[in-house]
Design brief:
The chain has 167 residues and is α+β, with helices and mostly antiparallel strands. It has five helices and eight strands, in the order E-E-H-H-H-E-E-E-H-E-H-E-E.
Length: 167
């Protein structure tokens, strides 16, 4: 289980079974999911993914994943994991639309980067972002990520790979 992470306004802590409805709602919300994987999940897919957090990710210690909370309310999802696409560890985060526009994404991303450098001992962390996701690209640029390459997906869309180095 990953350790809890705290920011000025947020608590990132391991998921608990009671988070299932909030998790499902987040991954099914088209405004959020348009930037994650292949878009919104069906309810069954979202529930299966949530189940794998416990049966696979936590059980096998595959990577660190957290529920993001503000004042005790679930407002998002965060993780850091090794990926083949980046050849290293990638940060992943998503916030519910009600949490957008208040700098919470910056807090989550910074917490994940700090965890990668300070706890996991990484020399660099990566992020992959759909080229049209200007808000995430700006956020990551503000906190020291630089664009290193593009990946052209099978459907012709472009994903940007960004990296931040320790130090």
């Amino acid at each position: 289980m990953p350790p809890p992470l705290r920011t000025e306004r947020l608590l990132l802590e391991p998921y608990v079974p009671a988070d299932e409805e909030d998790f499902v709602a987040l991954f099914r919300d088209a405004r959020v999911a348009r930037w994650m994987g292949d878009g919104p999940l069906s309810e069954a897919e979202a529930r299966a993914l949530f189940g794998r957090v416990f049966t696979t990710v936590h059980a096998q210690g595959l990577f660190d994943v957290w529920a993001v909370r503000e004042d005790g309310r679930h407002v998002g999802h965060a993780e850091i994991k090794r990926t083949d696409e980046t050849g290293g560890h990638e940060i992943v985060y998503a916030l519910a639309p009600a949490a957008w526009g208040r700098g919470l994404g910056t807090e989550v991303a910074e917490a994940l980067v700090a965890h990668g450098f300070d706890t996991l001992g990484l020399a660099e962390v990566h992020a992959t972002v759909a080229a049209p996701n200007a808000a995430s690209l700006r956020l990551l640029g503000r906190i020291g990520f630089t664009h290193v390459r593009d990946i052209t997906e099978d459907d012709g869309t472009v994903t940007r790979v960004l990296t931040r180095r320790a130090g």
